[in-house]
Specification:
mainly beta, Cathepsin D, subunit A, domain 1, six-stranded mixed beta sheet, six-stranded mixed β-barrel
């Protein structure tokens, strides 16, 4: 199971659902992937999902989607949305450096996730994208950031390896001239995509300042959750994130291999 803040709800890979005989009801092309492309989605009712060290999920109706063969080969059978784990208390701490997820209370954790030079967000400018209609509720977080001094809105996405920006966005168009070809294969739920790369780009998110390669990818934003790209594990892997019901805070150490400024 991949711990994925970029997933606004828990999702089971369709290959796994078929393998273990979970009944899937077709919902049509209601879902979208990392680049905004529509993907076939299914509904699984009465899904019994248990996380080691956490216990069973209270959510019994989850989505299922088709995924590329490379995801199946990696054995990724589900995508767990940690912000949807808020069952006891009113927040979840996702400590990526320590490899820990735990339920907690926002007021108890807030002080530990603000201040200093390592604040990811919490200045009031980020926003939550919440879907409350239907049996499957969704929640994701979009944060204000800068890539090479260009303003962007980035989805908080622990399911992505590299931070990226849509070429179609205003920032993407301005960054295109400084980009180079990217030979590394990239995949989303809808399949393989092509990308370019801005090497050693200066990224600022909240009070986090880092230098990392940023991918420029073809993609479109969803009207229900407008964004320009994602803030991924190249920035987040040294962070502890406090995920609430409508807000997020994060405190980070400089990412290994990335020059902080």
């Amino acid at each position: 199971m991949l711990v994925d803040t970029g997933a606004n709800s828990h999702v089971v890979s369709a290959w796994l659902a078929r393998k273990i005989g979970l009944p899937m009801q077709k919902l049509g092309d209601l879902g979208t992937d990392h680049v905004g492309k529509s993907i076939a989605t299914y509904r699984i009712d009465r899904a019994d999902i248990t996380l080691e060290g956490w216990g069973g999920l209270s959510t019994t109706t989850v989505l299922a989607t088709e995924v590329p063969d490379v995801i199946e080969k990696l054995g990724i059978g589900a995508f767990i949305s940690p912000q949807r784990l808020v069952e006891e208390g009113d927040s979840v701490v996702l400590d990526l450096k320590a490899g820990e997820i735990r339920a907690s209370w926002w007021d108890d954790e807030r002080e530990a996730h603000v201040g200093g030079e390592s604040l990811v967000a919490g200045d009031g400018r980020g926003h939550a994208c919440e879907e409350t209609e239907g049996p499957i509720h969704g929640l994701a977080f979009v944060l204000p950031a800068k890539v090479e001094s260009h303003d962007v809105r980035l989805l908080l996405d622990t399911g992505a390896q590299h931070s990226d920006v849509f070429v179609s966005s205003r920032a993407g168009q301005r960054l295109a001239g400084a980009s180079v070809g990217n030979k590394e294969p990239m995949y989303t739920a809808s399949g393989k995509i092509s990308a370019r790369k801005v090497r050693a780009a200066k990224v600022v998110a909240g009070r986090v300042k880092a230098v990392t390669d940023v991918d420029l990818i073809q993609g479109t934003s969803e009207p229900t959750c407008p964004r320009d790209g994602v803030l991924a594990m190249d920035i987040l892997r040294s962070c502890s994130l406090l995920l609430g019901r409508s807000s997020v805070l994060g405190r980070c150490e400089p990412p290994p291999g990335s020059a902080a400024r």
